[in-house]
Amino acid sequence: MKIIRAFSCLLASASIPCLACDGLDIADAYVMESPPGAGVLAGFATLRNSGDLPITISRADSPDFSAVEFHALVRKDGLIRMVVEGSLTVPPHGALAIKSGERHMMLFKPARDFRAGDRVTIRLFCGTGTRELQMPVEKNG
Amino acid sequence: MRPKRVFIRRRIVQIVAITLVAVFAALLGLLAWEERARRVSQLVSGTLLPQARAISDFALTGDDGKAYTRADLLGHWTVVFTGYTHCPDVCPTTLSQLKAAKARLGAHAARLAVLFVSVDPERDAPDHLARYVRYFDKEFRAATAPVEVLTALGRQLGFVFFRNPGPEGESYSVDHSAELVLIDPKARLAGYLTPPFYAETLAADLKTVLER
Ligand SMILES: [Cu+2]
């Protein structure tokens, strides 16, 4: 399987980055505990790419939420705005921080109230592959 | 010889006059700069208005379902944060920081009220707001109102918000001001605290305000 993936990466031309979750490392993943009844939660993580090609995460989903989106926070003219990012790209031998105040995984309509200590499952789609994440729910601060 | 002497004397008077004017201007500039530095340095991350501004009456709906008006601002300092509950990062983070800052104020905390004004009345019903803010602190209060009422209050307090439709239409977000509004015990707009917020500096600034 690994060989097939590596082969498909070799076939990819320079302009189309190899799309697979190989080389993707995820650290410090957590979901911020929110008040009971919260309609949305935010997930955070640091994504690292140990490979030579960029890794693009095209979308995400979860059995615990109705939908998952990637959001960036933009501050302009004294206003804060959440902007949907269609995909996330982790540069080769680089990292992408999904961190509070900058970016989050927007987790819509939780199936139930999640408390600190619970775990939620998030699936990241990287083109040919997927990566399942178990994210602990943690209290803020 | 005479005309030349007069010329020299006139020249000296001119130079002295110019020098005096320059020194005077420099002194004035220095004073203005010091005054400005003094005012700005009062808060680590925010500004106090040179003159607190009166707020005219308004009527929001409090998290208990009852009216929340200008009268509710009297007798204590109030820090107002505008946001909405479908805001999963900035809003809970700011409310957590306010709680942490309040904990550092000791006895001063009793003279400070925290008010969360939801700019999303469509989704944030009073009872939902009550559960939301009480999660952070039993003493935090929330209020909301129809958009027109919020817009009018925003004009008075200096906050703005815009509904920002999401791609699906149903899951819209609301762009909102990030500043915290400071209101004095006479229900006057006193100033603003500006992000990024940290519990330590927030506490220091709130203490400065409460000790005024
Ligand atoms: Cu978001």
Number of domains of chain A: 1
Question: Average pLDDT across residues of chain B?
Answer: 90
Strand percentage of chain A lies at: over 45%
Small molecules (ligands, ions, cofactors) in the structure: copper (II) ion
Q: Quick gist of this model?
A:
Chain A is mainly beta.
Which labels suit this protein?
heterodimer; A: 141 residues; mainly beta; Immunoglobulin-like; 7% helix; 55% strand; disordered N terminus; B: 212 residues; alpha+beta; Glutaredoxin; 2 domains; eight-stranded mixed sheet; two-stranded antiparallel sheet; binds copper (II) ion
Give an account of the 3D structure:
The complex is a heterodimer of chains A (141) and B (212). Chain A is mostly beta strands. Chain A has one helix spanning 2-11, and strands at residues 24-32, 40-49, 55-57, 59-61, 65-76, 79-85, 88-90, 94-98, 103-110, 119-126, 129-138. Chain A has one domain (18-138): Immunoglobulin-like, CATH 2.60.40. Helix content of chain A is 7%, strand content 55%. In chain A, strands 1, 2, 4, 5, 6, 8, 9, 10 and 11 form a 9-stranded mixed sheet that branches. In chain A, strands 3-7 form a two-stranded antiparallel sheet. In chain A, strand 10 and strand 11 form a beta hairpin. The longest helix of chain A has 10 residues, at 2-11. Chain A starts with a helix and ends with a strand. Chain B is of the alpha+beta class and 212 residues long. Chain B has 2 domains: 2-43; 47-210, Glutaredoxin. In chain B, strand 2 and strand 3 form a beta hairpin. Chain B is elongated. The model of chain B has no long low-confidence stretch (mean pLDDT 90). The chains are: A mainly beta (141), B alpha+beta (212). Chains A and B meet through strand 2, strand 5, strand 6 and strand 9 of A and helix 2, helix 3, strand 7 and strand 8 of B. Strand 6 (79-85) of chain A pairs antiparallel with strand 8 of chain B. Residues 71, 82, 104, 106 of chain A line the site of copper (II) ion (CU).
